[in-house]
Write a structure and sequence with these properties.
Distance between the termini: 46 Å
Order of helices and strands: HHHHHHHH
Radius of gyration: 23 Å
Structural class: mainly alpha
Oligomer: single chain
Low-confidence stretches: 200-215, 218-223
Shape: elongated
């Protein structure tokens, strides 16, 4: 099994996952006594807790190589983890693009807002140290922006005696969908959309150059 260099942040995430989910559960079972049923029961319990499929997949990705190494070292004859992932866990929620009205309201709010996030107001491009903001950081900023918007909208709606038009949760992926949707609404050629969205770099999701990618783009065009 090839050993890859692991970034420090990734290593810390693996250790956190191990300590929180595995150490006191599967971690109590000796490798030689480990059975496939143990893994399936473990994944089933996580599914019952409401964990997402992607989270369980991350744990699978942590366990499977470990037992593969045990097989190569002759400690066990068969990897009990391989093939156990299945469809355990809640499916990922479908990301929806912002409507044009929501987009315009959000941009107007950010432009006029005095709320500072990370020492900046308006549009954010990097951290105060000049480093690129990672997706998790962007999502955190977006969450703060939406919370601030909804707080202001709720107060205004109460004053105007109407139902508030709250902004839905937004992630960096939502903005990607929104951008693609706006292109589709303006009848941009699908090939141009693929180029703009960087399809050949996206790993086939959600705007890949295969038939499924073309289908997804067509769905955006029809919205």
């Amino acid at each position: 099994m090839a050993i890859k260099n692991i970034k420090e942040r990734t290593k810390k995430n693996y250790i956190r996952m191990w300590d929180y989910r595995i150490r006191n559960t599967l971690g109590n079972i000796r490798v030689v006594n480990f059975k496939t049923s143990h893994v399936r029961t473990f994944f089933s319990s996580l599914s019952d807790e409401g964990l997402a499929h992607s989270t369980i997949k991350g744990l699978y990705g942590l366990l499977n190589p470990s037992f593969e190494l045990a097989v190569e070292d002759g400690i066990i004859r068969k990897n009990p983890v391989t093939g156990t992932l299945g469809d355990y866990g809640a499916p990922a929620k479908e990301k929806e693009a912002l409507t044009l009205a929501q987009q315009e309201k959000l941009l107007k709010f950010v432009e006029q807002s005095n709320v500072e996030i990370g020492g900046r107001s308006g549009f954010i491009f990097n951290t105060k140290h000049g480093r690129p903001i990672m997706p998790a950081g962007v999502n955190s900023f977006l969450k703060n922006i939406v919370n601030a918007y909804n707080k202001k909208e709720s107060k205004l709606a109460e004053e105007e005696k109407r139902e508030p038009e709250l902004m839905p949760p937004i992630s960096s992926h939502t903005l990607r969908h929104t951008g693609c949707t706006r292109l589709g609404e303006n009848n941009v050629n699908p090939k141009v959309m693929q180029y703009v969205m960087g399809c050949w770099m996206s790993g086939g999701h959600p705007f890949s150059t295969d038939h499924s990618g073309a289908k997804n783009i067509q769905m955006h065009r029809s919205q």
